Amino acid sequence: MSHVLRESQVSRVSRVPQAVQVKEASEAGLVVRGLGKSFIAAGREIVALEDISLSVATGEFVTIIGPSGCGKSTLLRCIGGFERPTSGTVLVDGRVAAGPGTDRMIVFQSFDQLFPWLTALENVARALRITRTAPSVAESRRTACAYLELVGLSGYEDFFPHQLSGGMKQRVAIARALSVRPRVLLMDEPFGSLDALTRTTLQDELTRIWQETGVTILFVTHNIEEAIIQGDQIVVLTAQPGRVAATLRNPLPRPRSPEAALFCELWETIHNLLGFRRGAKVGGSLPRRRAVFDEVDVPQLATR
Amino acid sequence: MIRLRHLVTASARTLRQALFVTTLAGLWELAARAGRLPALLLPPFSDVAVALATETASGEILGRLGFSLALVGVGLGFAVLSAVLVTAAAMSARIVSEWVQTLMAILHPLPGIAVLPIVILWLGTGYRSIAAVIWFAAVWPLVVNLHTGLRSVPATQIEVGRNLGLRGLHLVAEVLIPGAFPHILSGMRVAWARAWQALVAAEMVFGASGGEGGLGWFIYKRRFFMEIPGVFAGMIVIVLIGLVVERVLFESVEARTVRRWGMTQE
Questions:
Q1: Strands A87-92 and A30-41
Q2: How far is B177 from chain A (nearest CA, A)?
């Protein structure tokens, strides 16, 4: 299973036109440059996002962490093409991405993202037919079966969404998004409505799926622990307007456990970056702690 | 096991209902046979049953029924078509949506049969007038439900559709129509009930031209010739068709779609 998926990933990369391939390695994957978004509300301009730059290399798992209302969902929707940024660009493999597309599949937080009139299998198979990823109905059902197996839902193919638990619905949504083979998987707090236990299980599952498929993931969360457990890179956003406070490279080896000493330090660092000062008195001054972790200077990387 | 128990309780309920109806028929028979009421006003149930049997055997009832059903089919068909067009227009422009809603507020409370005099003036006393009355009775509930149905589809599902590359009519066919189906189905139910009532009412007024007509016309004729058991027989057929369509057609469609998908609003 994993082998098949990996192979398809590879073949897809090789199908990218040569002109794009010669470009710098930093442009493979997702690059966001100087993205800004403002709204007009109650007669005045509200700046939701300001000068956001980040990059997700092919096969990388990047998390975005920020307090609620910092515009992280708006950022993901801009990248997904559902909202037009006021300034800046979104590049996928060096090409400007405007409007929604199957190269950027979103997994939403809400449980109603599955089509209730289709079974778990049909939800995936239909997506494959709509996008013409599968050449025939029979082929789409076979592929859909494989993806449901990947997310651990073998035996639930013929269940309708209302017969599945919240966690299972999110698994189907992940399978559906992966099945059309996006260049990057955009996840908008997909486990935000789950109970703590299911959430932990699904985090582990997502890490496994990511390792098996090699898919590129940009994952938005407001949970520091989740951001650390999942991300290779952690983009910390501050609120009003949403700005990148820091982009941290995660030094922790997988599988990550919250008990590790380094985990606590990273947690503290992010906590402080988000503007909380709870641990500052006990743990010492902020600059020393921040120095522990490599910051990725994304704006420079992107404009090079 | 659970399914079996469900079946048993369901059939027990049907049995109780059948028993109740049989008792009512028995009481009717007794009241008529008591001799207090003239048979012309209340014929015994057995006479009605005999009339029903002979009229069915002669093909009279089936012919009339076919005529009525065809008329309802034409009226409903046009109503569905125009409801789709009106809703499509309303979805495409906000101003049209406002017009439709105003028009709905004005015309929805008007019973279909109330427009009959005007329709006769415009189209004469033929089957076309009856079809027009049916159309008018059915079109508004269809528009209301189609409109609310399309608006009730979760934004996330529409975005998933767009993410998969669906646009325009493809998005409508793949996401909006199935998502609105619970409302569409209840709209069809109301439209059918109103159409069936409007049909019988309109036929009672003038039947149809050239001596041809449906069940309403059949009842009208039987009353004209004072064949009262035939009048009751016609009424029973009207009730039966209403029950069959509601219980057999709509219930089974609902069980196969909306209830299977867990999309019932109750």
A1: antiparallel
A2: 11
A53-78: pLDDT as tens digits: 999 999 999 999 998 878 888 999 99
The three-point CA angle B158-B161-B167 to 5° equals 95
Confidence of residue B207 (pLDDT cuts 50, 70, 90): low
Which residue of A82, A113, A116 is in closest CB contact with B261?
A: A116
Report pLDDT for A299. Answer: 44
Residue A279 has pLDDT above 80, yes or no: no
Q: What is the distance between the alpha carbons of residues B49 and B21, in angstroms, rounded to a whole number?
A: 14
**Residues A163, A121 contacting (CB under 8 angstroms):** no
- Spatial contact of A184 and A104, defined as CB atoms under 8 Å apart: yes
**Chain B touched by A230 (CB under 8 Å):** no
Contact A116 B164 (CB under 8 A): no
| 8 Å CB contact of A116 and B263 | yes
Q: Determine the Cα–Cα distance for residues B206 and B128; give it in Å rounded to an integer.
A: 12
Distance from CA of B186 to the nearest CA of A (A): 17
Mutate to test the interface with B, among A76, A111, A118, A130 (most CBs of B within 10 A): A130
pLDDT by residue (tens digit) across A120-132?
999 999 999 999 9
**pLDDT score for A199:** 92
Q: Give the chain B residue whose CA is nearest to the CA of A100.
A: B163
List the alpha helices (DSSP H) in B93-173: 94-107, 116-123, 127-151, 155-163, 168-171
DSSP of A12-81? HHHTS-HHHHTS-GGGSSEEEEEEEEEEEETTEEEEEEEEEEEEE-TT-EEEEE--TTSSHHHHHHHHHT
How far from each other are the two terminal CA atoms of chain A, in whole angstroms? 39
With beta carbons less than 8 A apart as the criterion, state whether A13 and A284 touch.
no
CB-closest option in A82, A102, A160 to B260: A160
The encoded tokens of residue B130 equal 């009856």
Cβ separation B174–A80 shorter than 8 A = no
B contacts of A110 (beta carbons < 8 Å): 154, 156
Which one of A115, A159, A183 makes the best mutation probe of the B interface by having the most chain B beta carbons within 10 Å?
Answer: A115
Determine the Cα–Cα distance for residues B90 and B7; give it in Å rounded to an integer.
44
- Per-residue model confidence (pLDDT) at position A216: 94
**Band of the pLDDT at A292, cuts 50, 70, 90?**
low
B255 touches chain A (CB under 8 A): no
Rounded-to-5 percentages of helix, strand, coil across chain A: 40, 20, 35
Q: Are B188 and B104 in contact (CB under 8 A)?
A: no
Query: Do A226 and A63 meet the contact criterion of CB atoms below 8 Å apart?
Result: yes
Model confidence at A2: pLDDT above 60 = no
- The count of CB pairs under 8 A between chains A and B is 62
C-alpha distance from B188 to closest chain A C-alpha (Å): 19
ipTM: 0.81
- Helical ranges in B34-110 per DSSP H: 45-57, 60-92, 94-107
The closest alpha carbon to A102, from A213, A177, A202, A188, belongs to A177
% of residues, chain A, pLDDT over 70: 82
CA distance A162 to chain B (A): 6
